[in-house]
TrEMBL record:
Domain Glycosyl hydrolase family 13 catalytic residue range list: 19-405
Source species, domain of life: Bacteria
Protein name in UniProt: Alpha-glucosidase
Family affiliation: Belongs to the glycosyl hydrolase 13 family.
Keywords: Glycosidase, Hydrolase
Pfam family, one: SusG_C
InterPro entries: GH, GH13_cat_dom, Glyco_hydro_b, O16G_dom_2, SusG-like_C
Amino acid sequence: MSKVKKENALWWQSAVFYQIYPKSFQDSNHDGIGDINGIISRLPYLHQLGIDAIWLSPIYSSPNVDNGYDIDNYYEILAEFGTMKDVEQLIAEAKTFGIRIVMDLVVNHTSDQHPWFLEAEKGNKKYQDYYIWQKEPPNDLQSFFGGTAWTFNEKQNRYYLHLFSKNQPDLNWENPNMREDIWKMMRFWIGKGIGGFRLDVIDLIGKQPEKEILGDGPNLHTYLQEMYHEALKEKDLVTIGETGSVTPETAPLYTAPERNELSMVFQFQHMALDEQSGHSKWALKKLSVPELKKVLSKWQTALPENAWNSLFWSNHDQPRILSRWGDGNYPLESGKMLAILLHLMRGTPFIYQGEEIGMTNFPIHSAKQIQDIESQNFYQNQQKTGIAKEKIFESINTKGRDNARTPMQWDNTIFGGFSTVSPWYPVNPNHKQINVEANLKNSESLFYTYQKLILLRKKYPIIIWGSYELLDTAPTIFAYKRNYEHETWLVCANFSDQETFYSFSEEPETTVISNYNVTYSSINNLNLRPYETFVVKLKP
Ligand code: TEU
Ligand code: CA
């Protein structure tokens, strides 16, 4: 197996990405809704953090049934977010900070208000073939948001497929005219100087719904190769595929460079570890640390040398990682532990807005507070089957997507510095303590750990290129080695609120980073405190 060399690095292999959920990042015009100018005003902050690229969740024109993941015009910006001029300015100003803008490409489906669907409904033959229709539902395929995936359309007197809400009809990827329209749209955005695309549920585009084949359909990779040749190949772009169905075995099909498909994928196997297997995400289960070690390590080692992957704890669909797998009694220690464990791995790290300052879940107590369509549907369906309210709220508060979507907490003022008026969704009351300003003032804060981790990645190629080996330790000790050009680093985390004894036989040379501010002169006979985590370079 040939070793990948740092000389051949592509920009996105040494980069750290930051995801922005525009609606909740920064309001600039006092309407309680985040916007593009708000993002521009916060570029210096992102530059201080040290990130290289922003994945921008959708900002296109949208009826907002699924907060922008239902697009009715790919060429227009949602008015409440700003204008195309603002976006051009964002791309240009970000560039002055060395930050690239990565757009969210949502092409598995459109909004039912997209002119293509409206034309299809009217009987326009060309556009009918842009969607997936059936006289009768061929099966009882379920939508990811609950309920049937086949909805009857009165005007057409037949059923159409929607794997998400009924207002998000699935596009028919078998239609070459439809694909040509997508390539054209992608070229339009590439022409604006963006850094690339995050491709929403892209593993679904090869689906064969009649056969209930969704992810990984037979033509999936043909379409991705066509996309590369028709839209991507001339520019040095990053493409990150959101692929819920990907396994370490199928990942190289998307990411092996010679296949000319995508740069990397998001895998979700670690995100499923706190749900009961075979059930939905709402069926809660406690995380097992040994399982987490196993899954993450498998992704570190199973990919061929030339395939690449992403690293993440959170995004706009997931609960806050600190509330999920951190510990409220040790927010700083456990938050730093999670950050160090992930950022010392091989792959491109993604930070979700607010993760770097320790934002947490938002407690929902009434149905009125549920904003997200997935949680709303879940709530209604559960109510119908007579499940106790407390149980429903427990699931929603643990796993609901609203947790990640509360406004960014900039300071301790009434609306958290996000807006001067009452925001579209309440700011988490803990913004009085947890906010950017407080983080920046305190040199021991989580922010500075993230900042340091990003700097370390820039400085030490071992983090980017080193091989990975999970160490066989105590169950709750997550320890691994990275090795590169005769140098070995050891990463060790006590993933537990219990003091844990562990002894390594190796000798440390220097301490790279730690969450208890310790310099480790020996790693024999350690009594590791709750969540104690360190990275040391070993003596050769
Ligand atoms: O999410 C894909 C997806 O499968 C989600 O339904 C995911 O399973 C769920 O959110 C986990 O709770 C993408 C986007 O990231 C999401 O925001 C969109 O709602 C969805 O696609 C449809 O575009
Ligand atoms: Ca605004």
